[in-house]
Amino acid sequence: MTVLAGHGFIGAAGHVAVPVAVPATLSAALQVSLERHAARPALRAHGRTLRYAELEAASRALAGFWQQRGLAPGDRLAVMLPGELALPVAVLSAWRAGLVVVPVDPQLSGDALQHQLRDSGARALVAAEGCAAALQPVLEALRLPLVVVVGAGDLLGPVRAALLRHRQRPRVAPQPLPGAVAFGMALDRGRAVPLELPPARPDDIAALPYTGGTTGVARGVVLLQRQLLANLRQAEQWLQPVLQGRPLDEPFTTVAALPLHHIFGFTLALLLTLLNGGRLLLVPDPTDTDALAALLQRERFHLFPSLNPVFEALARHPAADRIDWSGLRLSLAGGMAVDPATAMLWLLKTGSPIVQGYGLAECSPAVSCNRVDDSSFSGHVGYPLPGTELALVDDSGQPVPPGASGEIVVRGPQVMAGYWQRPEETARVMLPGGWLRTGDLGRLAPDGALKLVDRLRDIVWVGGLPVVPNQVEELVQQLPGVRECAAVAMPHPDGPEAGDAVRLVVVRDTPGAAEPTEAQLRAHCERHLAGYQRPVAIEFCSALPRTGVGKLLRRALRDAA
Q: How many angstroms separate the CA atoms of 25 and 548, rounded?
């Protein structure tokens, strides 16, 4: 098997072998950073800056509250928050109390939300008040013992909080959650009790992000303390040319222009920033390009990790010419393929090339990345990170010939421990020797750069948010009269700034039958899917295109859109 191994940043002289130093636990590394950078600004949102000392105090107080309410090390804490100040506080509080973080999409609802909370065995939930309507029926079914609700303006101070609540005043008052504890009250109660920091171990579970699988059922990915930390150190090493050139007279600032519940934003925006003593500009809704452009006009920033739709929408925004791009040292793309036209437009507008990488939740997530000193855009997703091995195999797990396409398999310290309570599914993706089958097809260029042959796992990216087709398909096929269906990407009717949309193609049980109707399908999807997950277009056909061995030809459906 031809194995491509990462050895550090690739400079002009080629690979440079640098060992990856992996401290014992992520919790310990973050605690050191909180103490070392106490006086530095850590987070900024809605004009309010939270320093590392304040972040340490707030997370300590919330950790004390969890302990006071009987949560024990290893218990799961679901965090259902947008990119606001409370999210990093909640995440750090969990690890300080020895808990496992379960990141939850704040737009999730219905069966998908219930499954994630039930499957993870969450003992507690911290959620934004805007999630109350979606949570109400789920919590009634699950009877979750402890819920903390974060209100608009929490941690902003009274004046900024009042202004924000006025600007965001909803037409309908937020729905209360019976028995829930207000975030501010939880902090007050936690400050009144001494915090007993449990010792963290490298093999303790740190996070349980959920991802869609081949069955369509969302699975929890078990990421240990040492695995997340290893990937952060790998990313640190790869990004050294950027991080070493950090400005001396201002905080090194990252823009969180991507969802922080998603593993890309969770690690390579939130955790990497905090681990390095940087400042994070929090973005509640990265798809709100007007608000994002207004923020960037007010702030200096240096690192911009994001997704293709955000890059394109921001580059085309009328205010883009009024943004000071002179501080931008790196634009980092992941999660989905970057369109070459978008990469060119971004470079012309900002002077910063988009550096594309590849990863998945099962790898904490980063696997490979292009050189951070290369201004060209090849469409490749780069070279393996330090300490990472990469190879291509066929359906039987055998190596493919040089230049041929094959399934990407990965081995390294960042590879997951397995799927939560799913040993059979874990066994299906883990090969002997610690290799992970990614389910993604790739091809290696002559210089070793990885090229993705198809879009990652057929995910449809709607406004920067991922929609797993199998999850939509499994839901629709529950409706009587549906023989089979396929969910694929199509151009969003709102234009390229919105990314893609979901197109649903349905085969009825009886050819020519009148049911299920389009209206019935839409009503079914509205009951069970978040807004961005719902099909924009619904079509009917007599048969889905398939290969000679019966595999669905999603590419043919996408091309026909």
A: 49
Dihedral angle over CA of 268, 390, 102, 474, nearest 10: 120
Report the SS3 class of residue 170.
coil
Q: Are 389 and 411 in contact (CB under 8 A)?
A: yes
Assigned token pair, 31: 């605690």
pTM: 0.82
What pLDDT does 16 receive? 33
**Tokens matching residue 305:** 């990790």
Taking CA atoms, 323 is separated from 293, 320, 341, in Å, by 7, 5, 21
CATH number at residue 424: 2.30.38.10
Domain shared by 188 and 77, yes or no = yes
End-to-end CA gap in the chain = 38
Position 63, amino acid: A
- pLDDT of 174: 67
Other CB atoms within a 10 A radius of the CB of residue 165 amount to: 14
- The structure tokens listed for 469 are 């087709």
Q: What span, in angstroms and rounded, lies between the C-alpha atoms of 362 and 223?
A: 8
Sign, CA dihedral 53-54-59-61, equals positive
CB–CB of 403/448 below 8 Å?
A: no
Find the domain containing 416 and state its range.
Answer: 384-456
Does residue 550 register a pLDDT over 80?
no
Least confident range from 48-62, 207-221, 286-300: namely 207-221
Q: Please report how many Cα atoms fall inside a 13 Å half-sphere around the Cα of residue 507, on the Cβ side.
A: 8
Query: For residue 560, is pLDDT > 50?
Result: yes
In a domain, 266, yes or no: no
The answer to whether residues 414 and 526 belong to one domain is no
Q: Are 433 and 511 members of one domain?
A: no
Domain endpoint, select from 178, 200, 222: 200
Of 304 and 529, the one with more pLDDT: 304
* b/e per residue 436-464 (b: at least 16 CB within 10 A): bbbebbbbbeeebbbbbeebbbbbbbbbb
- Give me the number of domains the chain comprises: 3
Type of residue numbered 54 = E
Same domain, 545 and 448: no
pLDDT of 7: 61
Of 430, 456, 482, the last residue of a domain is 456
Residue 535, judged by CB atoms within 10 A of its CB (0-12, 13-18, 19+), counts as buried
